[in-house]
Prior knowledge:
By secondary structure, the protein is an alpha/beta fold.
Amino acid sequence: MRMYDLIMKKRNGGELSREELRFFIENYTNGTIPDYQVSALMMAIYFQKMTEKETYELTMAMAESGEMLDLSDIHGIKVDKHSTGGVGDKTSLALAPMVAACGLPVAKMSGRGLGHTGGTIDKLESFPGFHTGLSTKEFKENVNRIGIAIMGQTADLAPADKKLYALRDVTATVDNLSLIASSIMSKKLASGADAIVLDVKTGSGAFMKKEEDAFALAKEMVKIGRSAGRDVRALVTDMDQPLGRAVGNALEVKEAIQTLKGQGPEDFTELVYSLGTQMLLAGKAANTEKEARDLLLDAVRSGKALEKFEEFIKAQGGDERAVRDESLLPSAKYVTEIPSPVNGYVSHIICDEIGSCCLMLGGGRETKESEIDLSVGFVIHKKVGDAVKVGESLATMHANDEAKAAASMSRFLEAYSFSETPPERKPLIKGII
Length: 433
Ligand code: URA
């Protein structure tokens, strides 16, 4: 078999076979096929697209390019959750302890973030001492003992995807539905969960700006997962404005703690309950949506969800006292209000611009090597549909550098649009697949 022939076949609109896709993935992972040939294939796929069968075979080849984690020695049905990401998305921080408190084992592999804020692991590192460098053995032991563990993705988890995603990133071939679906699902399938709940975001702060594209991606990922014998469900949810109120690592941790106490923002709380409901159903910890919601509510009201979070932070070396004493979490030097320039209603927020403002303050990574400032970011007081008066605070900015704060504040204001009449409010949950 020759890579040249595969490139030509795809360029001419043909369908690659399982054997051809496996040949490509195996030899790209071991370094035999060079980047320039794979770049050409990615561009051919970008224009010619892939069939469902090709997408499934590519996913499986990538998943099996490294270790397929075996979680069978963890008792019960293991349910994982994945979000396609967005601004203020701290969902796992509240969701994982909440479902674990309902008796569902949470064995989660998470990543660090490149972009607006850190990923789940960066956020959790707001707890002094917290680490995710667990061995697979410790990871499984923690889940069996306390019901929850989160570790970093091992180097051997879908290594083909790691190489391919980095190449797509620099060859303008990321935004192809089949390539995104296979990339995400290869990692999820290799992580060993029996069931997977996906949160596919749509809007100006999401990968998928258009709702129809988000639905198409969600359906594609659900099909791949079910073909691989896993129970997969997806929610398509709004990311046209930041989720909840906090944007920035430690600030998001504080908001997740508020939510575990039952005092979180309405939209974020609703998302956590909706995803949690699907997780409990997939894990057979509840038979109906009502039963699942009641279990989650009880975990919060009884304080069990917050206690589970403390147990989890402590088990991974973190200072669990910070769960009840926020002063132990990182905090910024300058805390400033951002005043509204007008009277009226917030009609629109360019979501990814708010993310970029957080990045400007140092809250995200521009390159893999960048250090994150965990303390900076925003707490948003006025969201789309809210009435504002001139001078009233739109958000509180947390910064450590005066020059960066000034630049970030003017960009933040530019991301806001106002109207004289209230705009239509969009639903948070757009659909379940
Ligand atoms: N996230 C991934 O892991 N892969 C993609 O291709 C896009 C988003």
